[in-house]
Design a protein that fits this description.
There is one protein chain. Helices cover 54% and strands 10% of the residues. The protein is an alpha+beta fold. Helix 12 packs across helix 14. The longest helix has 31 residues. It is globular and about 70 Å long.
């Protein structure tokens, strides 16, 4: 027994002296005073208060602050000069251990978590999935699922206060399953599908575990009911994905043709999916295993589901709150997308004002509020040595509200994103899709999906604000509102 106590004491001493070293090294960087062992945990234990707390930190302590999670120090920044280092340095491409702790059992070594040569090789393989021609093929998917979404919204339009996020979340799951795996879980028709429930469970577990010291400890976590729920959800997710991958692999192998993407196993013409690209790819002459493909497919599903539904929902909310902006969006949509017109990728690209509206909504409500990097090799910034293993987090929510870059920053103003105004801002003042080496590979895909579905919603409904309703924002895996993202839908006359 004493051996365990000695190991724990030794670990504590190592972390204590590391913290002391950081406090001395970064004494010029201010931040809230940490407590022994727990650090600043008590300030952060309630995610409903994170946004207000972080905004207060930056106004009180500066654009870069130091914050302790337990014994570990983090730099939290909104400083565009430091961001130049964080986003562009080859020594700052790895994600923090939080990503590994929360998602490694689910996403393995997918693009979100992987590093080094594996990340480089897989990123190279998947880049063609987001070229113009590939994206063009996905417009039909956006449109078909968008029509079903409009039908579901119409059924709910009698409600005086409707949480659009609940319904839109099902739409984005259908889209990402269709484009990533070539199959649909029909979430919009079957919201109780076991796969849908499993995904929801995983997304709820992550923020709960992140903030609880007991759950953060891997060996303690494995004795909790939360861990049992995670394992059960993962069994559902993995068996579903692996089943589709194996079925598709067998079909492709049976074709014995270079043109394997024309028809599915039912003889229906199909589009190239992310999964197809992975199945056809090799690294050093070896094909990817089913598990490697599953990790990437599930990474796309995770990255392109909740984030996209949050972006769509907050944009709808902003349009409801700003009727003059909504009127201009509606007029542009009617001009670019006349009735009974088959929507093309060119049409969506021509929705210039809608794009500015979406960008402004992403500025005020970035789906990923904060993301982190870890220093892989010592970097010098502004005369300060950033040591190996230092964790640096970017606070997008406060960054996008920096009055130095965005005057009257709380105001919703799409004209901030005219070409002229964008050129006068620091390029890293606005990064909803991250930036640099690890920018979001699917950002063009996401923007096209957002344009497609929001155009459908606005063409069919006038969005009205709900009297007395105010967003109650909270930071989970994505930025969310505790009381929903509510609007009133007024169907437009045909």
């Amino acid at each position: 027994m004493w051996q365990y106590a000695a190991v724990i004491l030794l670990l504590f001493l190592v972390l204590y002296f590391k913290r002391y070293k950081y406090l001395k090294q970064f004494e010029k960087i201010d931040g809230p005073k940490p407590y022994p062992i727990v650090g600043n945990y008590f300030l952060l234990k309630n995610p409903k208060k994170h946004i207000a707390i972080f905004n207060e930190f930056h106004s009180k302590y500066g654009k870069t602050i130091k914050l302790f999670t337990g014994m570990l120090m983090n730099l939290i920044t909104t400083d565009v000069k430091l961001l130049e280092v964080v986003m562009n340095s080859p020594n700052l491409t790895n994600k923090t251990n939080d990503y590994i702790m929360l998602f490694s059992r689910w996403l393995g070594d997918g693009l979100l978590i992987s590093s080094g040569e594996k990340w480089i090789s897989h990123r190279k393989i998947l880049t063609p999935a987001f070229h113009y021609k590939a994206l063009e093929d996905f417009i039909e998917v956006f449109e078909s699922h968008g029509k079903l979404l409009v039908g579901n919204l119409l059924k709910a339009s009698s409600e005086e206060c409707m949480d659009v996020h609940t319904i839109i979340n099902l739409y984005t799951l259908d889209v990402i399953c269709d484009t990533a795996m070539g199959t649909s879980v029909n979430a919009q028709c079957n919201p109780d599908h076991k796969y849908m429930k499993a995904i929801k469970t995983m997304c709820e577990i992550a923020p709960t575990r992140l903030l609880n010291p007991i759950y953060r400890s891997e060996w303690m976590y494995k004795y909790t009911n939360l861990y049992k729920s995670e394992i059960k959800a993962l069994e559902t997710i993995k068996s579903f994905s692996l089943g589709i991958i194996e079925k598709r692999r067998q079909f492709l192998e049976s074709r014995h043709s270079d043109d394997v993407n024309d028809y599915d196993e039912f003889g229906k013409r199909r589009k190239m999916t992310f999964m197809d690209i992975l199945l056809k790819s090799t690294i050093n002459g070896k094909p990817l295993t089913n598990e490697e493909i599953r990790e990437e497919v599930d990474t796309f599903l995770f990255g392109g589901h909740d984030t996209t539904s949050a972006a769509i929902s907050f944009t709808c909310y902003n349009l409801a709150e700003n009727p003059d902006v909504q009127k201009l969006v509606y007029e542009e949509i009617c001009h670019v997308l006349p009735t009974d017109h088959t929507v093309t990728i060119t049409d969506l690209q021509n929705l210039k004002y809608l794009e500015m509206v979406i960008k402004e909504s992403l500025r005020l409500y970035p789906p990923v509020m904060i993301f982190g990097r870890v220093v892989d090799k010592e970097v010098v910034y502004n005369g300060i040595k950033l040591p190996k293993d230092l964790r640096i987090a970017v606070n997008l929510y406060s960054l996008h509200r920096d009055p130095d870059e965005f005057p009257d920053s709380e105001k919703f103003d799409p004209l901030r994103f005219t070409a002229d105004k964008q050129s006068k801002r620091h390029p890293l003042a606005y990064i909803p899709f991250s930036a640099g080496h690890r920018n979001c590979i699917g950002q063009k895909f996401a923007m096209l999906e957002l344009k497609s579905v929001i155009a459908k919603v606005i063409k069919n409904f006038e969005l009205l604000p709900v009297p007395g309703f105010t967003l109650q924002l909270t930071s989970k895996v994505t930025l969310q509102s505790v009381n929903g993202i509510c609007v009133k839908l007024n169907p437009r006359s045909a």
